[in-house]
Amino acid sequence: MKPLDHDTFHFLVIDDDPSISRFLVTYLRQKGHSCASLTEGFDTATWLSHNNAEVVVVDLKMPKIDGISLISFIREVNATVPIIVFTGMGYDEESMHSALRAGANGYVSKNLPVEQLYSVLARVLATSQQRARRFVTESTDAMVAV
What we know:
Elements: E1 10-14, H1 18-30, E2 34-38, H2 44-50, E3 55-58, H3 67-77, E4 83-87, H4 93-102, E5 106-109, H5 114-145
Helix pairs in contact: 3-4
């Protein structure tokens, strides 16, 4: 499933469980993407100051910093990067709404097949690309109108 404008994207996975991080990195690389991972949420600021990601995948329940706070921080640094929650908490409605209010673009349970996560990632990227194209078109139209 690659209904996107270009074939490869750069992902950042933030999950305190190294086995989950390795699994997602391997899976996304097998899909043809590049991927970095952090197992410590506090490393996010440094990583983002030196790197770019087209999508960030965040776990909600991590030691030292919770996923909601991390999503809010990422939104302060980059207001447009798509953020997907990938959590073992299942579909806890309160957590899901908190994550979405903090700026997450999607929410997927780790209990679902990984293809479900990839489907959400593809949908969020497609929406993000449509917004970017619309912005470019509107900016070009405004420049022509001047």
